[in-house]
Amino acid sequence: MFVNVWSLWLVLLSAIVSLVVAFLLKKKVSTADPGNEEMVKVQGYIRDGANAFVRRQYKTLAIFVGGLAIVVGIIYYIYPIETEGTNVKWWVMVLSFIVGSSASAWAGWLGMKVGVDANAKTAQAATKGLTPAFDVSFFGGAVMGLIVTSAALGGVWLLYYIIGEPIVILGFSFGASTIALFAKAGGGIFTKTADVAADLVGKIEYSLPEDDPRNPAAVADNVGDNVGDIAGMGADLFDSYVASIIGAMLLGYSVSYTGLFDLANADILASFPLVISAAGLFASIVGIYVISKMKKTSPGKALNSGTYLAAALFIGIGALFTFLLTTSSGIDTSGSGRFENMSDKLWLNYGAAAFGVIAGIIIGLTTDYYTDDSKHPTQAVAESSQQGHALNILTGFSYGLMSVAPPTLGIVVVMGISYALDGVIGVASASTGMLAIVGTIVANDAYGPIVDNARGIAEQGGLEEDVIALCDKLDSAGNTAKAVTKGFSIGAAALTVLALLYSFMEEAKLLLVDTDFVTGLDVLSVDVMIGLLLGVMIPCIYSAVLIFAVDKNAQVMVKEIRRQFEEHPGILEGTEAADFEKCIDIATVGSLKALVVPSLLSVVAPIVVGVLFGVRALGAFLAGTILIGFIFGLLLSNAGGTWDNAKKYIEDGNLGGKGTLAHAAAVTGDTVGDPFKDTAGPAINTLICVMSLTASMFLRLFVGINSGEGLIQLGTLIA
Amino acid sequence: MFVNVWSLWLVLLSAIVSLVVAFLLKKKVSTADPGNEEMVKVQGYIRDGANAFVRRQYKTLAIFVGGLAIVVGIIYYIYPIETEGTNVKWWVMVLSFIVGSSASAWAGWLGMKVGVDANAKTAQAATKGLTPAFDVSFFGGAVMGLIVTSAALGGVWLLYYIIGEPIVILGFSFGASTIALFAKAGGGIFTKTADVAADLVGKIEYSLPEDDPRNPAAVADNVGDNVGDIAGMGADLFDSYVASIIGAMLLGYSVSYTGLFDLANADILASFPLVISAAGLFASIVGIYVISKMKKTSPGKALNSGTYLAAALFIGIGALFTFLLTTSSGIDTSGSGRFENMSDKLWLNYGAAAFGVIAGIIIGLTTDYYTDDSKHPTQAVAESSQQGHALNILTGFSYGLMSVAPPTLGIVVVMGISYALDGVIGVASASTGMLAIVGTIVANDAYGPIVDNARGIAEQGGLEEDVIALCDKLDSAGNTAKAVTKGFSIGAAALTVLALLYSFMEEAKLLLVDTDFVTGLDVLSVDVMIGLLLGVMIPCIYSAVLIFAVDKNAQVMVKEIRRQFEEHPGILEGTEAADFEKCIDIATVGSLKALVVPSLLSVVAPIVVGVLFGVRALGAFLAGTILIGFIFGLLLSNAGGTWDNAKKYIEDGNLGGKGTLAHAAAVTGDTVGDPFKDTAGPAINTLICVMSLTASMFLRLFVGINSGEGLIQLGTLIA
């Protein structure tokens, strides 16, 4: 059925090369020197804590995924996929769902394992100098980046190659999204529970330095970095990556229903996001290779150069692949323009993808202005801290609000241009383009927590001051890199869920073509406005639940830390070991328990809206969540980032440094910002992705109720 | 032209009766005992400070209003109103605009004057007992309530009676909105600048009690209550009240274009919101009378009973008026149902209005759960304060997020039902119904700051402890009353701007009827999505600018207070008078300066969107601001309320009371909450109202550019 099967082989090839490189790098990490006995011990605690958390999390997930698989099976048994040319059995969808969740779980687990392994080894390598330390930590992160992309792209390729229907990949994406929800939100709660508790008691009450081994929450804090910032982040980007691909594939495939192109050409367009992604993956691999070979005088610059290089290579390789595709046989070039000529259409979508990757960098750099401590906003937050806690909070929050503007304008420009290139398909291509170099993005993002942990282990392992200073230097490189990669996550998140919304509505239009249902989402209709209102409500509740979870668990852990200090005074004197496991246990149990409401909310809410108010209300509901989620994601992440860096700015000796009111206030801001930027903020993206995919997965159910009008049939209240 | 002119006379009568009662009550306040010399002196400071602020504010306003009047004149000269049966000269619109702004400015100034007068007199009356003190303060607030309603309703009546075209009232409403923007945002910045600065230095650094006369910011704080919570609040509700009426009138009048009813019946429907409002005004007057005659054992209950009574009376009087109207001659009862029978249509809209007022009460009571200190959320915030500043902030913010749910569900239900009754006209009627008893609402709302100020003057005037305790009791009654009235403001704000959005689009449809422009707001279109994205961005910037203004001005004032304490040690010892005027001046200059950006933003932003992206994008832009404004308004107001009450809960002696870490943390929360709940939160509503009215006022300009597609013509990018 595929006219250009060679392009699909290219996709497989990229996944295989990526996997091979990942295992080569993994070997480099695993053969590195693990350091002294104390370091091995601490590293062992972290590894065991992280494994224990992931094991329990996956057990819970198994039940959740199993339950959902049954529901998916029932829905697709009752409402089978049987449109023209498409006939997918219910169990294929279930299988796809399970494969998706398994692939994501596997990639997250393996990537985290390597990340944990790289922690202590980075600290040890730092005793030998900057380059070896950078290599170990960067390779550790790169493994995650390459495994995520190869598992995602390989999985999508396999399903598409075997079954040949883009819609089946929806199940894969839904599976990956389910994992991301647990990994991101659960990991986010875990990591901030430990971080906040460690700060509240250790830093503020007992004035212990960061990562002090006497702090019973110190190891839990390190575990949190691994399960939240590495495993959670990986699962999140796995989810976005696959979702952006499936959104674009479904929209591409929808041209087959327009009658403008034949089925073979629709297949070419549907598989084009895979070709784009393969180009990005090859670019990422080269980028990673170049970074590892660069001189490491400035590790931050090395990471950013790698990202820019990957982006440039992606644009080049993407052009090459597009050229090969548009000049191969079977391409419909009978007419001209995007409605008649598939070659033109592919070039336009390639343009949108290339523009997407450039926009990602620009959005990142402009947004970074609000959190960079050499810029006005962060310094203003630090200065206002001199007037106390309240003004620190107010100033940081206000800059968080202001920081919404540049990315919003960025997204508006990207949307406008990519839509002009090829309508909603163009928007989807822009999101695929932004996420194409996700291998590099994940590698750079995972590098951060690895060196952060390395610093902790160096401290706990009693390494020299200059080694710790080197770790600090590596750590600040991570922040520099994050400035750029952040833009991709923000931009891609918004565009991806928009693409999912578009594909949801396209699919609905198709299923309702024989009814008198109109699928536009007119804001002036009552069902659409009600959907929007309910949509903007959900991320508020979700954020609140997550922040509460951190808040509550941190209070439990604070009590435990105080208990240990009181009952065992030897801990503070350094003569007795703190009970790390108790703190890890509190974070593990607390975060998994706290996931019940958010995970149910994310699946149940869209189903309730769809069943009660119908397809249009559900589309509007998704649009509402996208709008508020975009704003809240930026506000929470950037306010948190500004507070964090304002604190670091003061700790660097500015405005009187530690021990001042300004520092105390800045620590308050940082603590408030922790669950903002690392729990609620990033998890909102996952929430919206899960809700969008839930809507698409269960679309057939909603269409079955009063021809998509829902039980209440609000849309028909008024003619 | 008006078939049922008697109903319009009824409207005039309600405005006159209201004005007469207002002046009777004003006289009662002005003849009350002004208290001892010290009190007269403090009262004089407050009066002079408030007058100075208002005078300067009105001067700035005169320039702004004058400039806008010229723009309005030019636009209506170039694009005159000349549709069928309508011919309005450009200068009529300008006049209407100026009358609207003057009426609002006059009502706000007079109401504030009486409020300021009632301050010291309430304190003095408190020496004689609860009832006399309650009466003075309640009468002071009631004057504001009655003057606002009579000026608003009287002004609308006059314009409608003379010119007979609902569209002219748009100018009146736009004028009122301009004043509200300055009064609400400017007053909000003023009041919180003083409050935050007074708390930061006085309470936290020097442990002075609330309202201590040694605090140089004490008088500025009192002035702030008057200019922000009385004058600002009055202008805000004047604005919402008129906007809800004009939204409903324009939508009602739009039936004349459907051809379903004749012009006379369209007029009846267009004037129905006035009849509904007159019913509400009569109900408010009776409610105020009954409150003033009730036994005052529990002043909080008295205020709430008055609100419930006014609501019940409104439902009764509204039914009577509707009955009279539907049985008078000229009503089209030829067919049946809302499309053929005007009598049925009026009854359905009466139903929506009655439902609106009930929903207002329910929304208020459920939302109140999150800020009431006898309920779980506020107590949980207080408890988390024991773990320090950060957890206080996190817990309060989370409850603020949660508090979004009940009113959202409330609005969804009101919208669903009122839409089912009569479509968008029904929704507009529900908003008119909610705001019909605005006289009572404003009276109860203005009561709060009056007694708050009375407490301050009692403290500064050296009155006995039990008098201050009585003032505290009166103060807490204000909070109880606010619990119910708040629901009306929230619900009415959302529904009113929705009604304005609907009438904007109806008007656009009419003006573009001869083009191939389609006026639905399809979220899936790129111009609509871009409009939505830009719409959700603006309230973020606006909130940030307002919070920054408080933040920055408070820092200036903090420095001034410290300077006074350092250079004049006698102030703290009580031997030297603090320089109050300097602080008042800082707040005045700072808040007016800070208004430049937000006021330009509110008028320029919708014009830019309309000119560049066209009418649909502008409609979506408004929808975006409504959605995010609704959420932010609730989040900021309720988080602020919870923090405020958690602090009071601790100050009442719970959890160790004053002097504990919990108290210090709770003060931080309260200070953060101040600009949230009293500056940014409530001003967002005004912003959205101004933007909606700007869109409607300049609609003819946007329609003139590429047939409403805007300069960029995004909507035509893709067929």
How are the SSEs ordered, and which strands pair?
Two copies of one chain form a homodimer.
Chain A: H1 5-30, H2 37-78, H3 90-126, H4 130-163, H5 166-205, H6 218-253, H7 255-258, H8 263-293, H9 299-326, H10 342-368, H11 376-385, H12 389-402, H13 405-436, H14 438-460, H15 465-511, H16 526-567, H17 570-573, H18 580-594, H19 596-651, H20 661-697, H21 699-704
What does this structure look like?
Chains A, B: Belongs to the H(+)-translocating pyrophosphatase (TC 3.A.10) family. K(+)-insensitive subfamily. Chains A, B: Pfam families: H_PPase. Chains A, B: Its main location: membrane. Chains A, B: It catalyses: diphosphate + H2O + H(+)(in) = 2 phosphate + 2 H(+)(out). Chains A, B: Homodimer. The structure is a homodimer of 719-residue chains. The first copy, chain A, is an all-alpha fold and 719 residues long. The first copy, chain A, has one domain. The first copy, chain A, is built from 21 helices and no strands. Chain A is globular. Chains A and B meet through α5, α12, α13, α15 and α16 of A and α5, α11, α12, α14 and α15 of B.
